[in-house]
Amino acid sequence: SKMVYYFGKSKTEGRGKAKALLGGKGLNLAEMTSIGLPVPPGFTITTEVCDAYYKSGEKLPAGMMDEVNNAVRTLEKELGKKFGDDANPLLVSVRSGAAVSMPGMMNTILNLGLNDAATEGLAKATKNERFAFDAYRRLINMFGDVVMGMDHHVFEKAFDGVKKKYKVTEDTDVPAEGLRQLCDDYKAVYEKHTGEAFPQDPMKQLELSIQAVFGSWNTARAVRYREIEGIRGLLGTAVNVQSMVYGNMGEDSGTGVAFTRNPNTGENKFFGEFLINAQGEDVVAGIRTPQPVADMPKWNRAVHKELMEIKKTLENHYAEMQDIEFTIERGTLYMLQTRTGKRTGVAAVKIACDMVKEKLIDQKTAVLRVPANDLTQLLLPSFKPTARNAADVLCRGLPASPGAAVGKLAFTAEAAREQSDMGNSVILVRKETSPEDVDGMNAAAGILTSTGGMTSHAAVVARGWGKCCVAGAGEIDIDAKAQKIKVGGRTFGVDDVISLDGTTGEVMSGEVETQEPKLSGDFAKLMKWADEYRTLAIRTNADSPADSKRARDFGAEGIGLCRTEHMFFEGERITDMRAMILSENEKDRRAALKKLLPFQRKDFEGIFKAMNGLPVTVRLLDPPLHEFLPHTAESQKEVAKQLGVKPSEVAKRGEALHESNPMLGHRGCRLSVTYPEILEMQVRAIVEAAINCEKKKIKAQPEIMIPLVGTANELEFLRAKVEATIEETKQAKKYDGKLDILIGTMIEIPRAALTADEIAKFADFFSFGTNDLTQMTFGYSRDDVNTFLPDYLSQDILEVDPFQSLDTSGVGQLVEMGCQKGRSTKKDLKVGICGEHGGDPASIAFCHKVGLNYVSCSPFRVPIARLAAAQAAL
Ligand code: PEP
Ligand code: MG
């Protein structure tokens, strides 16, 4: 099949083809060319060729270079230039471009086509010898780096030698003859390190460069980036070969990158930077600090105006915010790239809402366009204004990616990863970040750089992840070797804590207190739209009044899981809890439970009040009892003292409770079978709390959930106990109202899913506990899975962590079957999910598909679940 697609005035072959085939960059170059934007012509080699390259042991497929040859001939004709010509040579760039953008991850080669003769030709054609030799030395350097894997420093050394000879310090002060000599030096260095002369045949250069771009698809950093971003299933990268235009031809030339709207805030204002007299990657690399595009009219009013028109054309065409690269060669503007712009969650929401207002998109598109997980960023903490005002501001950098981060300093990506693995919050401090740093950037709480602009690598990557980043804080002097920074005459090291404000760019010393976010009007609007489309109800997993309230503020429509055991760890209750567990007989146990009852009742009252009018699913005690016991001799002694027994007693009872497989042991409903008095206490607390609330005009809607049921008999037996206790409590309280308390169960054991039709006879509702269901279906211990899971993921044995995203083909079958079987017994059985998966967009889509009634997730994920549920329904 066709391997090369041309774009230019003579023809544009790639328009409307698949992004998977041409990559994002290639497809958009074709698209921009077709809609009449000024794009330097060129051609794209498909991702299928990359796939074939790897499948044939890293060899270019037969016939590819013939197609490339033809495309080059067309290009030459169109531009009236010739590859390798000594009068007017054709020069091209060679760049990667996969279907999903991977900023800075892969290789680029510029000025390709220069050789000794063509450099003379370029000097003639541009009447600028200095420019021509500067381009040539850049090519030899880049080609050496990228294609031949040479160390950049050997070129730097040669450059230093020439600078010394001409007694200058800046690259730009080296005269033309110095650059001419530098090219000879570079060629010598190249030959010394590669054992071959620098290739003079432009087609040879091109062939090797294409191979190098394909090769860059599988470098460690590219693989790691795809891993972190969860990018899978791509064929490879495409290669874009495009005729060169120059931003470094003098003061009337320049190069820049821009977003058509502000990618941090979403504001509808062109947001970009440019550098005068600079080439290609200078802006992105963050080596020189660029100026804002807003200042461009002072330099060239016409180009600025044209750029603003292009913004409109592009946004009207794509109906999406674009991220563009452009170059101005001697006053003429060229578009080098456009793609959908990465943005923060805040910006995504604002842009979606604004574009609906501007009639660029409709409501449904707006709902579909905001990645549900990115809402996390809107829910991020910021610094408390009071703490902020009092903060010790060290300096101000660029507000590259919003948020608030506090942590100790880490000077390398490895150190950041290490510290974060140990559970420490760190700020990764770098002069500038490079793609090799992605893992450390991912691990850090925030990123701080001393050079680079708003579109530098650090800024782009951090924004994509919603990670706080301050870039270009030039006042900071970083000594990575000594692991110290100096700023304003003060020194900070690895043990010092700093705070970063990604929204203002400020760097502060010490830990500045953070606060919960306030949600903007656009957020509420988007949520309202989402609520119109979704059919799944969204509940929350909460076990305190504070969490319940937060979840309700985020839009939770009830509690899907209140884990009662969390309540027993607080304050003095743990003592009573331990006394209960350590009791030798029922009488002592009941005495201890009696003390726990008022605590439980109060907890429930608080939660019912917070969820006034909404259902609250309370789960009876679930974990193995030994989890509550002290494990060290020291703490056993303490507990013994509190309980007035011998330490040996505590230890003995602890041993008696020991289990080999506690998660498969004496827990869940099994506890209620052997110690029904625990169930009785909990049910009494629930009922009393509901009655007390009613007296205060609070509408409590408790639902009692029995965990870890595997057989219908278990549920039948325990349901009877719950019903009896409800009745007894009502009578004891002389209550004659009507408390409608549903009694249901969790489906978290495979057998429960398989026999759900029988279990449903005794259940008013089901809630899939997919944490345990995943554990028991895979046979992976929830608590120990990290001993092997990283290997499973890196070896592609598992695509994703099944505890994070529901394994739809395996565990999902049990969910679907359990739901269907349950409803075959009770047509209107209410079915939900309350495992961690309830907050994961992919899992939510599955729950929607199989017809669940609700998902329940942690409070902070409630908005994400609302949006994901809407997206699943659309
Ligand atoms: C579950 O197993 O999915 C569940 C929600 O219960 P827990 O995580 O408390 O075991
Ligand atoms: Mg469970």
From TrEMBL:
It is an enzyme of class 2 (transferase). InterPro entries: ATP_grasp_subdomain_1, PEP-util_enz_mobile_dom, PEP_util_AS, PEP_util_C, PEP_util_CS, Phosphohistidine_dom_sf, PPDK_AMP/ATP-bd, Pyruvate_phosphate_dikinase. Its EC number is 2.7.9.1. Keywords: ATP-binding, Kinase, Magnesium, Metal-binding, Nucleotide-binding, Pyruvate, Transferase. Residues 520-872 form the PEP-utilising enzyme C-terminal domain. Substrate binds at residues 563, 619, 748, 769-772. The keyword Ribosomal protein does not apply. Belongs to the PEP-utilizing enzyme family. Catalyzes the reversible phosphorylation of pyruvate and phosphate. This is Pyruvate, phosphate dikinase. The lineage of its organism: Bacteria, Pseudomonadati, Planctomycetota, Planctomycetia, Pirellulales.
